[in-house]
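Troubleshooting: if your tokenizer reports a length mismatch, compare your output against this known-good record of 72 residues.
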Amino acid sequence: MGSLSYLDVEKNELTRELHQLASMGVRLLEAKYSGVKIQNTAISSLVIEVKSRQQEDPSLEQLRARLTINRL
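Known-good structure output:
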């Protein structure tokens, strides 16, 4: 985060907090009728690992095979 010295004192703290939220993966989006929405853009490393390995899980493979057979 760069220098905030150009901001008014009131805006300085708010800007610092917004930068902290952004670094944690939180995004504030403007909503048309309700003001602001909060969107969490951070993805846990655990979620990434589980998703990458779900194709290797034998029990999931058996379930996929059953579903394929039942669709035919």
